[in-house]
Specification:
Chain lengths: 757, 144
């Protein structure tokens, strides 16, 4: 069954056609055979009945006369009928009277029946007929008929039917081919169309209509359905496209909106209807010092804290007000935003409700901006105004036609005209009569964008006084850079001009005397240098040869030896003085000493070595702070520190000297202090001690009196000052500054001290 | 053979003291004394009357001299072929460090500041003797 149901329709049709045809032909054939058989039998019965009657009638006489011959002749007439196998005439007693047998066949006469009639037995029919004479039966005729004819007919019929069956099968096959085009083709077309639609989703495919029958209707219906689907699919597709377009448009407008919000200079925050932050742009986040992730969903008031600049009272956020009142809200002045880290920013802000075409509020948008720059500008502007107003110089604005546009108090004081009198009037009112042509020239230069600096000229005041002024005139530009006027600063230099002339004279005098002084100073220094150097040589000779004298004449008396010893002592002292004088002169000498980075800690180390004997002998304790590195000539600083520390040891009290060297920074420069616990210095000598060869003590304490003079010279050479803070019995502290020295700075707040061992 | 010593010194008193100091050190020496910077320069450059000058075993130079100073003479010694390896001692009253630095660039055996003390001066003989021994001048003198 399933085999049949899965069979293609054209086969099904062919099978149905052929089976139907075969069945019809078979039943027809069978019907014909059956009908023919019965009709034939009837015909045969009547035929045989008539035949037997004739023979029986013809045999009556023979039988009656017992003429066998005649009877046999009568019977032999049956030869004309080939299907009659045998015929016999029986007497009443049943004995054979005459007999006939078909040629070739042995006589097989049927036995005489009891009555007349025909009897069909299998392949034969037996006929019995009474021979009657004068209504009296005198014998019986029996005849055997061969029914082979019927069989032959049946075979003929069978062959005919088979032939028809074959012919009709051929016809059915041909018909089914035709049917295929009539039924199967439209259906398979339809099937193909369906498959194609379902595979390609192309709803424009249509099934071909072949006929007006049900298949045609089916194709129409299918096509209608496809058309319906197609139009719905089209609608759906265009709806989808429209939706995508709308989405894309929404997305792009959202993108552009976000880009806009992100890139505008103002801070923008939007909130939902409960005041929670939905969006904050970059400017907003940078002002608030919050990150995007932190603010999302947070109540605005937690993030956006604003106070009044002066009262410091919290100001209600515009969002709260917008949500309450449902309208746009501007902001009060002097609002300061407190950022997350406490940074304060002056801002302007405003809030507005977000609603869709008259609907309820869906949220708020808050816009604010940093107004620091504007406020600074306002402040600057106020400052500038007050500077202009308070200036003693005349500050005057004028346009390119020379008409005064602003006039400050300084201008009133210098020129005598009030602002009322000048503004709107030509500035040429102020020109001195002999200098009228200056002003057009100045205006021409301003138009070219030139600035005029320190232009000295003469102007006339309201009361006609001529005054000397120095003018500084600059072009004034508008916002697009065009020159629209000039700002003029005029200074009354009448006094200065007079003073300057006097000053120039004095300066010339001063320079002359300075030059003289410098020359004589230089001469003096050269003299000191040469003298101290060259004087050493003869002194050396005196000393050496005095000693040689004693050595060469050992017999000289002891007094002469003492004289020589005094000579040698005198020359030694003289040499010391000369050496000091030389050192002193060298410091002031114009000669360039090599300047290098000098570590004063290393200098102190050298000084300690140089003074080792004195330090050891006195038991001095020297503590030194961490000293800086200075750009200087090292020899100067060795002299400076060695003299000061040497003095501190030399002028000690009965206590072992405690000396402290320290440095501090004042005004970016180093200030050193060397303090001791020595005998101290009376205040009245605090200045004198720095003079060359000035001493406060006699021969008890050796010295030439040049040490502090050298110190002063060194310090002054580096632009500094040296002084002493001291009193008798209270030690002394020598301080000096070195403003002209570049230095490494105080290295640390805590001074690390290094005690002398 | 005596040790030949060139002395460039304008102060005869110092020459006399130096001679005494060298004798104190028991050196067998022969002094050539030039008291003028210009003449000294001519000597080491073998010019004029000094064309035949021969390099001594040692030169003792003062720095402050008439005409040409000791530094110029020292430069000329190091620049000349015949004198370039000459052992030089400086005997000067000047002791400025700057001057020292300049002189040290020209291979100086000793730098001696003229002493004020007689005994110190006499020690110069021994200093010179040490220097001669270091430079091998004594051995050369002995060998020749």
């Amino acid at each position: 069954m399933s085999f049949f149901s899965n069979m293609p329709i054209k086969r099904k049709l062919m099978a149905i056609t052929m089976v139907t045809t075969a069945a019809a032909l078979l039943s027809l054939g069978i019907g014909i055979v059956v009908a023919d058989s019965s009709l034939f039998r009837g015909y045969l019965a009547r035929d045989l009945s008539a035949l037997t009657r004739i023979i029986a009638d013809n045999s009556t006489a023979a039988l009656a006369f017992d003429d066998r011959q005649s009877a046999t002749e009568t019977l032999s007439a049956l030869r004309a009928r080939p299907h009659i196998v045998a015929a016999c005439i029986y007497r009443l007693d049943g004995t054979m009277f005459a007999e006939y047998a078909r040629p070739g066949a042995s006589a097989m006469c049927p036995s005489p029946g009891s009555g007349d009639g025909i009897r069909f037995t299998g392949a034969d029919a037996t006929v019995s007929r009474s021979v009657v004479l004068a209504n009296r039966r005198i014998g019986t005729l029996a005849l055997l008929y061969d029914l082979g004819e019927i069989r032959e007919r049946r075979i003929l019929y069978g062959e005919t039917v088979l032939g028809f069956l074959l012919a009709s099968s051929l016809l059915a096959f041909l018909l089914s081919s035709k049917m295929r085009s009539v039924i199967a083709t439209p259906i398979s077309q339809l099937a193909r169309a369906t498959a194609s639609v379902s595979a390609t989703r192309d709803y424009s495919i249509r099934a071909q209509k072949f006929s007006g029958d049900e298949l045609g209707v089916l194709a129409d219906g299918f096509n209608e359905m496809l058309a319906g689907i197609q139009s719905r699919d089209h609608e759906l597709r265009s709806a989808l496209l429209a939706r995508e377009d709308a989405l894309r448009e929404a997305r792009s407008s959202r993108d552009s909106l976000e880009t806009t919000l992100a890139s505008i200079g103002d801070a923008v925050i939007s909130t939902d209807v409960e005041g929670r932050i939905v969006f904050a742009n970059r400017v907003a986040l940078s002002l608030l010092k919050w990150t995007e992730a932190e603010v999302a969903g947070r109540p605005l008031d937690e993030v956006f804290r604003i106070v009044n600049e002066f009262s410091r009272e919290t100001v209600e956020s515009p969002v709260t007000k917008v949500l309450r009142e449902g309208s746009i809200v501007g902001m009060a002045n002097h609002t300061v935003l407190l950022a997350k880290d406490g940074t304060e920013t002056p801002i302007d802000d405003s809030g507005a409700p977000i609603r869709r075409e008259g609907g309820p509020i869906q949220g708020t948008v808050l816009v604010f901006r940093d107004v620091t720059a504007r406020r600074d500008a306002e402040e600057t502007s106020r400052l500038l105004v007050s500077i202009v107003e308070s200036s003693g110089d005349a500050i005057v604005g004028k346009n390119l036609n020379g008409i005064v546009t602003s006039w400050n108090k300084g201008a009133e004081l210098i020129f005598g005209y009030s602002a009322m009198e000048m503004i709107g009037h030509p500035v040429s009112l102020l020109a001195a009569p002999d200098r009228l042509d200056e002003m057009p020239e100045i205006l021409a230069r301003i138009r070219r964008g030139e600035r005029i600096d320190g232009y000295e000229t003469v102007r006339r005041t309201k009361d006609g006084t001529r005054i000397n002024v120095s003018l500084t005139i600059s072009p004034v530009y508008d916002a697009v850079g065009r020159i629209v006027g000039a700002s003029k600063i005029a200074r009354d230099i009448t006094g200065q001009v007079r003073a300057a002339a006097r000053l120039a004279e004095l300066n010339a005098d001063l320079q002359r005397s300075n030059e003289n002084l410098a020359r004589s100073n230089e001469d003096l220094e050269r003299f000191a240098f040469v003298a101290s150097h060259d004087l050493q040589e003869p002194l050396r000779m005196i000393a050496v040869y005095s000693q040689l004298l004693v050595k060469s004449y050992p017999e000289t008396d002891s007094q002469a030896a003492m004289f020589v010893s005094n000579i040698v002592g005198g020359t030694k002292r003289m040499r010391e003085l000369l050496a000091d004088l030389l050192a002193y002169a060298e410091i002031g000498a114009r000669v360039e000493q090599p300047v290098e980075a000098v570590d004063l800690n290393a200098v102190m180390e050298i000084v300690r070595q140089n003074l080792k004997v004195a330090i050891d002998d006195s038991g001095a304790v020297i503590s030194t702070a961490d000293l800086p590195v200075v750009k200087a000539y090292s020899g100067h600083f060795i002299s400076l520190f060695q003299n000061l520390i040497g003095n501190a040891i030399k002028y000690r009290s009965e206590l072992p000297p405690v000396i402290r060297v320290s440095v501090e920074e004042t005004g970016g420069h180093p200030r050193f202090a060397i303090s001791d616990n020595g005998i101290g210095i009376e205040p009245e000598y605090h200045e004198k001690i720095f003079a060359a060869f000035k001493r406060l003590h006699g021969k008890k304490i050796p010295g030439t009196g040049i040490g502090l003079a050298i110190c002063q010279r060194v310090v002054e050479r580096y632009g500094g000052r040296i002084w002493v803070e001291s009193d008798v019995g209270r030690g002394a502290t020598f301080r000096f500054t070195l403003p002209d020295v570049s230095w490494s700075g105080v290295r640390s707040g805590v001074q690390s001290e290094r005690k002398a061992e | 053979m005596k040790i030949r010593i060139l002395v460039v010194e304008d102060n005869p008193a110092d020459v006399m003291l130096l001679r005494w100091a060298l004798e104190t050190a028991e050196l067998d020496f022969e002094l050539t004394v030039i008291d003028d910077g210009g003449d000294a320069l001519a000597f080491v450059q073998q010019r004029g009357e000094y064309a035949d000058a021969v390099a001594p075993d040692l030169a003792i130079l003062d720095l402050n001299l008439p005409r040409n100073d000791g530094l110029e003479i020292l430069q000329a010694i190091r620049a000349s072929q015949a004198f370039t390896d000459l052992t030089v001692a400086i005997l000067s009253s000047s002791s400025s460090p700057r001057e020292r630095a300049k002189i040290d660039a020209f291979r100086v055996g000793r730098y001696i500041a003229k002493p004020t003390d007689l005994n110190e001066f006499l020690k110069i003989g021994f200093i010179v003797k040490d220097l001669l021994e270091e430079s091998g001048a004594c051995r050369r003198a002995a060998a020749s």
